[in-house]
Amino acid sequence: NGYFPEKIAIIGAGPAGLSCAFYLAEKGYTTKNEATFYFDSNVQIWDVLASSYAADAEILTNTYDGLIEYDMENQAQPALSTGYTVSEDGLKYTFTIREGVVWVDNQGREVGKVTADNWVAGMQHVCDAAGGLEYLLGAGFANIVNADAYVAGEVTDFAEVGVKAIDDYTLEYTLEKPTNYFPTMLSYGVFGPLCRSYYESMGGKFGDEFKADDPNYKYGKGPDSIAYCGPYLVTNATAENTIVFKANESYW
């Protein structure tokens, strides 16, 4: 996760990455605080939880963090979760959410606090929006209790799905069966957080009330209508021309 060296370095560069940095510094090399990358597609959907486009993910992955991120040596590192426990039967994963992290808009203005509920809201929105990757939550993949049933409309109360905010900083997932690889899925976009209050302020709704074509629904229409908790803010996006990222000064 993360296509910019700054994000990888913050999450954990690993021994090789740090060795390279020290070597270059010893040889008198200096680094810039700007970098240019090339993308071959415009962002189609600015809402990462509602998109199944890889081209969108390449850009949007830098606007948020997940519970776990992978460093440049493909080692899992704690991100917005500081740790987790697994029940003896392998069915419950309980995560401790990092405290003091904030959501901001693309101008860097605080719009909310990162709490466990953000992952509950995020998963419900994934299922409601049906962007094409919600199947990853269910049987044969993450195996989250009632994820498939909610998507199919067989369960209408999202409280029956196996994700719950125990308190502001404790998040619990319940699985249908032991799934040893479950933590490795947590860097997938479908496990991203969603700032519930900001989403609702943009006309976002949940369950049967969600309507993507509602004229009052403004969330994810552009970089100025999403909330950020990752290392970068998108300050400008001009189709077929430029996407400008700026370091998020509030990044944890």
What is this structure's SSE topology?
Elements: H1 5-12, H2 14-26, H3 54-60, E1 68-70, E2 76-78, E3 81-86, E4 92-97, E5 102-104, E6 110-113, H4 117-129, H5 147-152, E7 163-167, E8 170-174, H6 196-201, E9 232-238, E10 242-247
Antiparallel strand pairs: 1-2, 3-4, 4-8, 5-6, 7-8, 9-10
Task: Walk me through this protein's architecture.
The protein is an alpha+beta fold. Helices cover 21% and strands 19% of the residues. The protein contains 6 helices and 10 strands, in the order αααββββββααββαββ. It has helices at residues 5-12, 14-26, 54-60, 117-129, 147-152, 196-201; strands spanning 68-70, 76-78, 81-86, 92-97, 102-104, 110-113, 163-167, 170-174, 232-238, 242-247. The strands form 4 sheets. It has a 4-stranded antiparallel sheet, with helices on one face. A hairpin with a 5-residue loop joins β5 and β6. The longest helix is centred in the first third of the chain and has 13 residues, at 14-26. 38% of the residues are buried. Mean pLDDT is 92; it is low at 1-11.
First and last CA, distance: 16 Å
Helical fraction equals 10-25%
What are the segments in which pLDDT stays under 50 over at least 5 consecutive residues? 1-11
H/E series, N to C? HHHEEEEEEHHEEHEE
Total strand count, please? 10
- Give the strand line-up of the largest sheet: 3-4-8-7
Q: Proportion of β residues?
A: 15-25%
Rg, please? 18 Å
Count of separate DSSP helical elements = 6
What structural class is derived from the secondary structure elements?
A: alpha+beta
Average pLDDT figure: 92
Largest sheet: 4 strands, antiparallel
Principal-axes geometry comes out as globular
